[in-house]
Amino acid sequence: MNYSKKDFFIIDGHCDTVHHFRETKGYNFSETNSIGHIDLPRLKEGGISLQFFALFVEPEYKPFQALQRTLQLAEHFLCEMGKNSEQVKVIRTLQDLEEAMTQQKLGALMTLEGAEALEGGVEILQILYRLGLRGVGLTWNQRNGLADGVDVGAAAGGLTKLGKRMVQEMNRLGIIVDGAHIAPRGFFDLLETSTKPIVITHANAAALCSHPRNLTDEQLRALRDHGGVVGLTFFPDFIAEKGQATLAQLLDHFCYIADHFGIDILAIGADYDGIETTVEELSDVSKVPLLLNGLLERGFSKKEVQKIAGENLLNIVRNTLPREEKIF
Predict the structure, then answer these.
(1) Cα–Cα nearest to 317, from 55, 57, 71, 108
(2) Residue 3: pLDDT above 70?
(3) Is 135:51 a contact under the CB 8 Å cutoff?
(4) CB 312 within 8 A of CB 267
(5) How big is the chain by its Cα radius of gyration, in Å?
(6) Cα angle for residues 293, 294, 300 (degrees, 5° grid)
(7) Contacts of 129 (CB under 8 A, 6+ apart)
(8) pLDDT tens, 308-318?
(9) Is residue 328 part of a domain?
(10) Which of 65, 202, 273, 296 is deepest in the core (most CB within 10 A)?
């Protein structure tokens, strides 16, 4: 059962490809590479319409060089997108999104994975907003000044006072709030604090794979009731207990969440270039159509697959980003 790429607006809610820009020898975003999972030709082949590009600050830069590293990565992202501006549009506003769709350009949305760079206060967030930042994951796996990540363990706390203030400012500016990697107490604090639906950009169902980064039924239910979305990841460790997974097992996660919590919560968050291994059938972004065909073969309707492929996450983008860039 095959489909035309024109039938779907596909969004991938998370990748770490920015690290290849300027820093991986032999990699060129504009050309097809044997390195990594994502480049412009393979994004086109996979039918991706909007790609979230994360700025991931490695642990060795935390905490004291986190802002410096974030600024370096932001420059790498903006430079690479600028070089390919005839085919790519950086999404800062809803107007940008509409132009990208009209012009059939790839939309590129800059996000931050782990908010150590923001510990200096809301002014730092505002500066990064001016640079085009439109999504923030409050934690990676560790504790920071905003919240605790999942690796902190059973004693992990929730959002700090600064964390709550930052979420409120993200809501005001029009920045998507991402709860991937956050510890459970912080997850529920996010739902209480954010006036906009949040996203979990890359995680799966804990009921099928008990990895600490996956979401429990309680979390999935609360996320659904808040109007949020979870992007399911292609990382085998999050799909099957033994860390070896097939496309069929990934499809099981989609089916489980759809059956228990509905279609509107589901999205794609592959985590390409942030994971060492992938589901074998989804070895790079060009293979995403195999996932959508798999969903159709499992009995999802075309309309349901359109929601999963992009519409659910697109609703979050449209309900969060500003119509025009804020001046303040």
Answers:
(1) 108
(2) no
(3) no
(4) yes
(5) 18
(6) 85
(7) 173, 175, 326
(8) 999 999 999 99
(9) no
(10) 202
